[in-house]
Amino acid sequence: MSKKLPLAGIRVADMTTVVFGPYCTQILADLGADVIKVEPADGDSARNIGVPAKTPAMGPIHLRLNRGKRSVSWDMKSEKGKLAVQRLLETSDVFIHNIRPEAIDRLGLGYEAVKKLQPNIIYVHCTGFGLGGQYAGLQAYDDVIQAASGAVSLLPRVDGNPRPRYLPMLFADKVSGLHAVYATLAALIAKGRDGEGQHVEVPMFEAITSFNMLEHLCDATFVPPTGNWGYPRQLDPVRQPMRTKDGYISIAPYLDDRWVRFFQATGHPEILEEERFIDKATRRANMTQMYEAAEAILPEKTTAEWLKILKEAHVPAIHANEIGDVLEDPHLKTSGLFQKREHPTEGGYIEVRQPVRFSSFEYPESAHAPTIGQHTAEVSRELGLES
User: Fold this and answer.
1) Quick check: helix, strand or coil at residue 37?
2) If 0-12 CB within 10 Å is exposed, 13-18 middle and 19+ buried, where does residue 113 land?
3) Which of 123, 143, 152, 316 has the most C-beta neighbours closer than 10 Å?
């Protein structure tokens, strides 16, 4: 097994903040890139999400979001700070930031300016809105993008409450961060093939709208449309985790033969004799009613009993965890997703490891998330500058 990580030898100059960009660079760091995070004197604002254990600006999300990176803090308005950033860019393969165009130009770090410092730079601009559209340059956060992309209209379609609502996670930031990862990797592959860098734009609005519309454009895809937007299966108010005798369970019969096995295994084959469920065509047409019939059956037994029965019947099912319960989930304990670690300044904490596994290497234990400017002197020396 190779000890070398895929991005070993790749240097990333990282001027991203909050979650979108830092999530991308966290993954790049886990894959072996030397990510140098350039921060202002008070640090990235994401450092202050959650309650720090000991040190200000060392919040719990920062511990995961910025692991494996080196932090430098240079005054970008001073000549010394400007020189340090220029030297860093001259030695970097990738420059990634989420600063609005007019602000990055004022810093003298627009694409054309950086290209003069490093002609083959991969310049990744994480934007809120595509630079070719009417919203270009507007500020964007997760809430803003969820609203603009239509994501806030999905829960109302499910539960009947007409008020638009955010999905309760940093959905737009994290999904956009994954788009930024593959965009950066694709540009690195192209550079390896052609020897040239390029400008890469990763706009949140377009990324999340594309992500949402994969299934939800649905029957509005055709011109003229054959039906409405919205994937009915995902918007079905009954197709939700269902109550058992002692908890909740998620079932996913999905295919017709599994539905047949579900009703047989649960001891209710007579339901399949009802006119509305008599054959494959009627069952497909009355899918919501199928879920309603299942919902009436599941309180008869405990979650554990149903999981055993449905596993034997080859019907997909799993218990419904509370978000905090996943820390004790037996599968995740076995697979080792969570790892207890000891931070040199913050003490014990839980690390969430990369979920993707490769046969040619194992992830080493990543460096702990840095304090603000922890590596300023170290990186400055590498760049031939005084710290």
Assistant:
1) strand
2) middle
3) 123
